[in-house]
Structures are given as structure tokens and as C-alpha cells.
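Let's practice the habit of predicting before peeking. Look at the sequence and jot down your guess about where helices and strands might fall. Then scroll down.
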Amino acid sequence: MPQPEDFVRPFAEVALSNITRDYPYAAHHLARSLADIVPAAEKTPAFANSFDWHSSVHMHYLLASLLETKEGRNSSWTDEALEILTEHLSEANMLAEAAFLRDNPSWERPYGWAWAVELNRVLNDSGVAELRELGRNTQILSDTVFDLVSAWLPKVAEPVRHGVHSNTAFGLRRILIGARAQERHDVVDVVAGAARRFFAEDAAWNFRQERSGHDFLSPGLCEADLMAEVLTEDELATWLPAFLSELDPESPALTPDKVLDPTDGQQSHLYGLGLSVAASVMRLAPKLVVIAEKHGDGELATHPRGMLTRVEALMAPGLEAAVSDEYMSSHWVATFTWEALLATTNIDD
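Done guessing? Here is the structure:
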């Protein structure tokens, strides 16, 4: 199994390259008049790089995370990384970013919102003083997301259940974890209540037919990941085996899909799919094993153990794509790869 420390330097190089690269850039901004047709940096001065806003946010998160490693604390790229993060995540820039989110309350919802909260969380929790100081700046962005999600969720009739950015469960899980870390119980209650309303009655997810040609998320596993954060231990012991009953080690959902055209930005999402599925399996399979052992169900325990044997194959294409020369992959895949690599260390422990 690959180890995270082997990828710290190459991923730092990728992240630094991405967040200092202005073009190509996909500016998904609503233009209300000709006056809105301006360079993205005039609206979102911190994150007008790395191809699009959400990728920029999570590449900043990746770089901050890499600075937490042993190599990241004292490396040839450490000072440069801290300097760029300090410049991009200045108080003035964060005020501008937060203002743009407030003025455009459905923009980057919920995927970009989730990464903004995740960036703030890793900065606040950092062992590096300079990064903790930046967490004070990004706090306004996180607080803005908390306000937006609290206003939005009570009005949502149904969740989005597909495998790309607007997937509801993926974003809500990260926002929930960030809100808990800050003891924002008001936000936790709103998110958990919505998750129960959306997903508590679901069972026997159809993993055989969920995958489509541009997914980078498994809708079923994202939902299971979220509910594992929301349900009580007893509730999860009933809900999780029932929901994952159609998933086994031979399921198509646990087989990496081949990317035939890496230059196709939509098709290259499949690199991320293998990585996000692997990370979900590494979080969920141990929970299933615990449930099975607690209830003396040996047959139930065989599936999650078998699922874990699929992880390395699921990750392999993404590991290569994350540091490739093809920008359609390298502007974002390293973040998903890093999180999957960290999940392998938890399994190993």
C-alpha cells in the first residue's frame, strides 16, 4: 500500500503550481449585467486560480495539510508555501470572498462551501503558528457558509443524489464535521436534521447501476458516510447494513473505471471516483465489521473485509493522475489522493 510520506513533496509541487496558475480558469459566475464581466480575481481574489474556485479552495487546503507533515515543517518549499498562503488568505481577501458568497447564495453550493469549511478547519487545528493565524482570516468564510447552509437546508425538498459537485451528502458531511469542530451546535442540528429527513428511510442502495461516466463521487457511499456521522451507534447498526446490503467486493462500484481520454475534464472525474470510493470504504468497512462482530454475524463481516481488498486497485489510477502533466486531472485529483492516502494509515493502525 502506498504511504502518504512518499507523496508530500510531489503533491506540494502540484498544489503550489495550481494556486499560482491563473489560466485556464472556469469562471462560473452569474453575470447580472455587463459590469459583471470582469476577471475572476476582481470578484474572488484568493481563489481565482487552479482552474476553478472549488478546486482552488481545496488545493489551498491540501497545501496547508501538507505543511503539517514532518517534511512539510522543514523543506525547501516550506517558506514559499507559507508565503503564498499568507498572501492569498489575507483578511482583505477573505472579506471579499465571503462577501461574494453572501451576494451569490447558491453559488458553489454545497461542494465549494464544504471545502471552504474544511480549509478553515485544518488551519484552526494546525500545529503551525502561521497557519493558525490564517485560520482567523478564513473564519469569516466558514461562518458565512454556516449562515448560508442554515438558511438553505430548511427550504430543500429533496437531496441531490448524483456523483458530481452538487451531491448533497458529500458537502453536508464536511460541513457537519467542521461545525462540530467549532462547537456550532446550531449548524450541527440543522445539518443532522436535514440528513435524517433526506436519508433515514433509505435502504438497499443500488450500487450496480449508480455509476455514470462523469462521476467523481459514489452517491451511495457519500450518503452512508454522512449517516455514519449523524446516526447513533444503535441506529447505525440497523441502518448501515441495510443500506449497504447490495454492496460486496465484486460490485462494479468497487472496480476502477478506465479513463480513455485524460484530456476530457468530465471523463477524468473517474480518477477521483476511485479515490473517493476507496476513502469511503476505508471509513465504512471497519464500522460494518464492528456491527457484525457485536451481533455475532460472521457472514456480514466477510463483505467489508473483502471490500478493503479493493482499495489499492481503486486508488492506483488516481495516484498516477494526481501528478500527471494533464491539467484536467492535476488541478484537483491530488486532494482526493491525499485524503485516501491518509485513510490508509487509519486502516493500518
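How did you do? The longest helix spans residues 269-294.
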